[in-house]
Write a structure and sequence with these properties.
The protein is mostly helical and 105 residues long. The chain is built from two helices and three strands; from the N terminus they run E-H-H-E-E. The chain has a three-stranded antiparallel β-sheet.
């Protein structure tokens, strides 16, 4: 610390477009959402595709898995990013503009 309180400011974000914890949480939640969405989408697509026979079940499962994975990744990533931003705000990280050191509040 440089001892000058005027130089110390609270850090709100670390990286452009998100925070450190927000980026990690968004990635993990997006991955989890994609896996769950793919499984659920494949099952639903296969059930609907059974109306067209075995080939329809396979096509429906593939389409459902793709749509489910994309939807799950999108929503999971956004929720994870917001949760991460809340966690970063709660941590109270500070940075000295004079010497550049970061520290907990």
């Amino acid at each position: 610390m440089c001892g000058v309180s005027d130089w110390v400011v609270q850090i709100k974000t670390f990286t452009k477009g998100g925070t450190v914890v927000g980026t990690v949480a968004g990635t993990v939640a997006g991955y989890g959402g994609a896996r769950v969405g793919a499984s659920a989408g494949a099952l639903l697509g296969a059930r609907i595709g059974l109306l067209a026979g075995p080939i329809g079940a396979v096509g429906g499962a593939i389409a459902g898995a793709i749509i489910g994975a994309l939807t799950g990744a999108y929503f999971g990533g956004n929720v994870g990013k917001k949760v991460g931003e809340l966690l970063d705000d709660a941590r109270g990280l500070y940075k000295c503009n004079k010497c550049g050191k970061s520290f907990d509040g």
